[in-house]
Design brief:
By secondary structure, this protein is mainly α. Helix content is 81%, strand content 0%. Helix 3 (39-65) runs antiparallel to helix 8 and helix 3 (39-65) packs parallel to helix 9.
Length: 264
């Protein structure tokens, strides 16, 4: 069984490095359906797993590719981190009044997976439609400039809520939001920026779940043995592997899993 955790960690870590998608979207369903963990434990463990594995990916993107825009990261974090903390307090309150949170987590996870599948397909369409050019300043001019930063912060709030409940959304939904908000940012930079934002978000949410007893550290350690090499390999392959085949397959898989959670 532990060997299965290592292989799963490597596969998911590599997908995160290549596509910026696949951390919570694949690991949490794997832990629930394949390995039989409770949804709350799967979510809490996966959040800390994601925080650690994505740190490796950001190191490659920042040092090797120079593909992280730290201003966008800070604006999104301004919304997502307080939202994550507030969501943890909400979950804690529901537990305190003896409300069953399994149904909430399962349904939210399903919805998040379906949204992620749609986001993956839309993102593939947007990145193929035209050649994207890196701009020196990500701030637009004119009327849109006034709304760009507030819209980024609001996006962070939504991601903070969704990721904390389900551990899903920091990848595909985050990158899709950045693609819409910053249309001249290169695809590689979008992935790097989203990975960098996901680190503090998943860390805060993960530590929050830890305080609720929703983290299995033995499982976490085993997953990391496979995932750290996986994300290193994937991040280096991200500039070489074409996405036109991989992304539709990933989107289809996420859609099927999401529907299974929603209809369960």
């Amino acid at each position: 069984m532990e060997f299965g955790y290592i292989i799963s960690g490597f596969a998911v870590g590599m997908l995160v490095g290549i596509t910026g998608v696949g951390g919570g979207s694949l690991m949490t369903p794997l832990l629930v359906f394949l390995f039989g963990f409770k949804p709350a434990i799967a979510v809490g463990t996966d959040l800390l797993y994601a925080a650690i594995t994505k740190t490796g990916g950001v190191f490659v993107h920042h040092k090797s590719h120079k593909s992280v825009d730290w201003r966008v990261v800070s604006w999104m974090s301004l919304g997502s981190l307080p939202s994550a903390v507030a969501t943890i307090f909400l979950i804690k309150h529901l537990i305190k009044i003896e409300k069953d949170i399994t149904g909430l987590i399962t349904f939210t996870l399903g919805v998040a997976l379906i949204l992620t599948a749609i986001a993956v397909l839309i993102r593939s369409f947007l990145t193929r439609k035209k050649i994207r050019e890196i701009e020196d300043s990500v701030i637009s001019s004119g009327r849109f400039k006034k709304m760009q930063i507030p819209a980024t912060i609001f996006t962070g709030i939504i991601l903070g809520l969704l990721v904390t409940i389900s551990s899903v959304g920091a990848g595909a939904l985050g990158t899709l939001a950045i693609l819409f908000l910053y249309p001249k940012m290169s695809t590689l930079k979008v992935v790097g920026t989203d990975l960098a934002h996901a680190i503090p978000l998943t860390a805060v949410a993960g530590f929050g779940h830890w305080s609720l007893g929703h983290v299995n550290f033995a499982l976490l350690g085993t997953l990391l043995i496979g995932s750290l090499p996986g994300i290193w390999v994937g991040s280096h392959l991200s500039v070489k592997i074409p996405e036109k085949v991989l992304r539709p397959m990933l989107a289809t898989l996420l859609l099927i899993i999401g529907l299974k959670f929603v209809l369960a």
